[in-house]
Amino acid sequence: MSTINAMAAAINAMAAEAAINAMAAEAARNAKEKGWDETPATPGEDIALMHSELSEALEDIRKGYELNEYYYEENGAKPCGVPSELADTVIRIGHFCAKHGIDLGAAINIKMSYNATRPYKHGGKKL
Questions:
Q1: How many CB atoms lie within 10 A of CB 14?
Q2: pTM greater than the 0.90 cutoff
Q3: Among 6-15, 33-42, 115-124, where is mean pLDDT lowest?
Q4: Residue ranges per domain, the chain?
C-alpha cells in the first residue's frame, strides 16, 4: 500500500471511529434524558437488553417479515421490523460503551483490522 493510500485509510478509519463514538454519545445522552439511567443497570443487565433486541429481530423473522421490511405500531409512529431491532441493538451497545468509557469506534477498528488477517473460515466451525 502506498503512503498516500495508507494515509487515506487512516483518515477514513479515524472519521469512522469519530462517527461511531458520536452515535454512542448521542445514544447515552438520549437514554439519560429519557430517564433510563436513573436506576443504573448492571453490565450484565445491559448486555441482556442488547440481546433482547436481537431476539425481537428474530421474532420478526419468525413472523414472516422480510429482512429489510419496516412496519409501524403505536398509531403508525413506532418503526418495527428487523432493521429497527438491529438499530436498537446498536443504540443499546452505543449507550453501554459511552456509559462505561469504552471507545467503540476504536474497538471496531481494532477488531476489523485483526479479522482481516485471519485465514479463510478460521477455527474450523460450520456456522
A1: 13
A2: no
A3: 6-15
A4: 3-120
